[in-house]
Amino acid sequence: MIEATGGLAELRRRVAGWRREGLRVGLVPTMGNLHAGHHALVRLARRHADRVIASVFVNPTQFGPGEDFARYPRTPEADAAGLGQAGCDLLWQPPVDTMYPLGTGAAVRMRVPGIAEVLEGAHRPGHFDGVCTVVARLFNQVQPDLAAFGRKDYQQLAVIRHLVADLAFPVELLAGDTVREADGLAMSSRNQYLAAGERAAAPQLYRSLQAMREASLAGAPRAAVEAAARERLEAAGFAVDYAVVRTPGLAEPADGAAGARVALVAARLGATRLIDNLEFTLPGG
Ligand code: PAF
């Protein structure tokens, strides 16, 4: 694997060269501190593209005041080694002044209404503005044919789908399945913040999602499903931001209606905020 150490000009030269050869280019945007979930995204992109670029950029504009931007784990050597093994061809690690040449204060921002304003958007105001702002820049810099994002960040994927559809980015989106630890905890760079006792409690997040799915399939009303999940998580020591069942578009479904559903939770163990989700289908009568 090579790194585009020559900056944006070198990145564009390489991508243009691949294009001239008729090769399809995939992008896996990341913030680094890569784990098996990211490596699976690289392998997914590899199956659909001839060349894969991974970006590593801890994006300041998607962190709110008091969030973990400064302490977000940065592990460049391990990231480069893992990406090479996963089949990545080129690493794009732009400095902040390449990503935001006029400074973050003067940066043109993207804002997706509606779907970006609920759940994560409500609890982390401005978060998805930052995500969309950097994803649009990455698409412009790399000009990929496809890009892979994880289903673990369910709402992020939905927001990026909206961004791509509305701005007509010629980028095919691929969704990678959530990769879990043996006890069900979804892999996340933030898991390493957990103290031993918190790590022991953390799998309750996935178990609560499974319980939400089972209760929904058994016909329990949505309000009861959500209240039981919140209670279960609080009993396990979580401070719950939300535990909800939604349609794929994140609307509140009517009780008794059939169709696709997603259970989503966001909760904190100590100072660490974790999110997870589980998709399922309620069969028709
Ligand atoms: O999912 C992430 O790691 C980030 O939100 C992304 C998509 C790389 C944008 O910074």
Kindly describe this structure.
The protein has 285 residues and is an alpha/beta fold. It has two domains: 3-176, 3-Layer(aba) Sandwich (Rossmann fold), CATH 3.40.50.620; 194-282, Pantoate-beta-alanine ligase, C-terminal domain (Pantoate--beta-alanine Ligase, Chain: A,domain 2). It is built from ten helices and nine strands. The chain has helices at 8-20, 36-48, 76-86, 96-99, 120-123, 127-142, 154-167, 196-201, 204-217, 222-235; strands at 2-3, 25-30, 51-56, 90-92, 146-150, 172-176, 239-246, 259-269, 272-282. It has a six-stranded parallel beta sheet, sandwiched between helices. β3 (51-56), α3 and β4 form a beta-alpha-beta unit. α6 (127-142) crosses α7 and α9 packs antiparallel against α10. The structure holds pantoate (PAF).
Q: Approximately what portion of the residues adopt beta-strand conformation?
A: 15-25%
Number of beta strands: 9
Termini separation: 53 Å
- Helix and strand pattern: EHEHEHEHHHEHEHHHEEE
Question: Which descriptor suits the 3D outline?
Answer: globular
For the record, the CATH architecture of the largest domain stands as: 3-Layer(aba) Sandwich
Counted up, domains total 2
Radius of gyration: 19 Å
* Strand adjacency order, main sheet: 1-4-3-2-5-6
Classify the fold: give the CATH topology of the largest domain.
Answer: Rossmann fold
The major pleated sheet works out as: 6 strands, parallel
What's the total helix number? 10
CATH level-1 class of the largest domain? Alpha Beta
CATH superfamily of the largest domain: HUPs
Ligands bound to this protein structure: pantoate
Binned, the helix content reads: 25-40%
Determine the mean pLDDT. Answer: 97
Q: What ranges have pLDDT less than 50 throughout 5 or more consecutive residues?
A: none
